[in-house]
Write a structure and sequence with these properties.
about 400 residues; mainly alpha; Growth Hormone, Chain: A; two-stranded antiparallel sheet; 2 strands
Length: about 400
């Protein structure tokens, strides 16, 4: 079921950019609400396995589209001083939803027999109609992205949107003029070619997505019970819940830090902390002791991931990519993320059998070490800068690299 969901997510991510560029960010998000609602309703009603699979694919498409459209929308409506915090809220929503689903499935919609407890998944599916309706209600009242409106030459709409977002008519008019000027000065041939023309910038966004998924987070999440059992803890499933709780708490901690400490600092702290935790897990699985080391390393790994490498790659996609190719680049980067998620999910079990947990965490540790060096050398700090200022900085960096020194 999860494999087919990942396929739907990949398809949705590919669709998200073109659809949001055509009809706008607001209406793309509004469109997702009835898709989610219908998927959950039909999941609760259907008995056919094939139809249930179809619902998973369609639900995956909606998830994939939201992963491409929502971070873009957040980046385009948020003021520079709050863009980091607003972007981290996206990841906060994801991890909170996962933990809430786990709680409902494990403790609320549960039936018990003399021998087993099991989740009443149909009731759980019906329950998620409620947030789908809430999404529809919120999507109707939010304003359209002013950046998208400016790119379409709709100045009055841009000013109206900014007035609702900023609450100041004078600053809204000035910002609308700046967005219009930046859109008019943007150049590009369109299509995939424009991504290659800006590959120095696009590669940074893609590298962050690769680092996020190849860091081994799925190994911790999917095999946390096995890790705790290997360490001798009997209540492994309950510890697994607390790992998820730690993920939610540390994501909340990251929100105010995004616009104070900065993206790059948090990324470096995150990769360094995760690397140390990988080394600790490697030591544990080589020696099979001490038990506390596995527990501390697992909690530490998820905590450091949630502090930086979880939310920041999604946040920085919308910051790095220029308006003229943002939708297409977001679709491609979100698709890359889902492909990597699918690959790591599919391979982690075979890797465990082939090289053991020690080899798995040695490999993930190497990825984190290389990724940390890449972040230090190549990833710019975007804290407190407008999207237009970021593009000017990245453009100047590109120009500097293209200048050939003369004798």
């Amino acid at each position: 079921m999860e494999r087919i969901l990942n396929i739907g997510c990949l398809l949705g991510a590919l669709l998200g950019g073109p659809v949001s560029e055509k009809i706008g960010r607001k209406f793309s998000i509004t469109f997702l609400a009835p898709v989610f609602l219908g998927t959950w309703l039909l999941t609760g009603m259907f008995s056919s396995f094939v139809l249930l699979l179809a619902c998973r694919v369609i639900g995956g498409v909606a998830i994939g589209m939201s992963s491409a459209v929502v971070p873009t929308y957040i980046n385009e409506i948020a003021p520079p001083s709050l863009r980091g915090a607003c972007g981290a809220v996206f990841q906060m929503g994801v991890v909170t939803g996962i933990m809430f689903s786990y709680l409902c499935g494990a403790y609320v919609f549960v039936e018990a027999t003399a021998e087993h407890k099991f989740c009443q998944w149909r009731n759980l599916a019906y329950f998620f109609i409620i947030p789908s309706i809430a999404l529809a209600a919120c999507a109707v009242i939010v304003p359209e992205s002013p950046s998208w409106l400016a790119s379409k030459g709709r100045k009055d709409g841009t000013i109206a949107s900014l007035r609702r977002l900023r609450g100041d008519a004078d600053s809204a008019a000035a910002e609308a003029d700046m967005l219009a000027s930046f859109s008019n000065n943007s150049s590009g041939s369109g299509g995939v070619k424009i991504l290659f023309q800006n590959r120095h910038i696009v590669s940074i966004g893609f590298a962050l997505m690769l680092l996020q998924q190849l860091s081994g987070v799925n190994a911790i999440i999917f095999f946390q019970d096995s890790i705790f059992q290997a360490a001798g803890f009997k209540d492994a499933s309950e510890l697994g819940f607390f790992v998820m709780l730690a993920q939610m708490v540390m994501t909340a901690v990251s929100i105010p830090l995004m616009d104070t400490a900065g993206r790059k600092v948090l990324l470096l702290l995150s990769t360094a902390g995760m690397f140390v935790c990988c080394v600790c897990l490697l030591i544990f699985f080589i020696h099979q002791q001490p038990a506390w080391l596995a527990l501390v390393a697992s909690f530490g790994y998820i905590s450091f991931f949630s502090l930086g490498l979880g939310p920041i790659p999604w946040l920085m996609q919308g910051e790095l990519f220029a308006q003229e190719y943002r939708s297409m680049a977001m679709s491609c980067s979100a698709s890359l993320n889902w492909v990597c998620s699918f690959v790591t999910t599919m391979t982690v079990s075979s890797l465990k059998k082939t090289i053991g947990f020690s080899g798995v965490f040695a490999m993930y540790g190497a990825v984190l070490l290389i990724g940390g060096m890449y972040v230090l050398k190549c990833v710019p700090e975007t804290k407190g800068r407008s999207l237009e200022e970021i593009q000017q900085i990245l453009g100047n960096r590109r120009s500097a690299r293209l200048i050939t020194p003369t004798a």
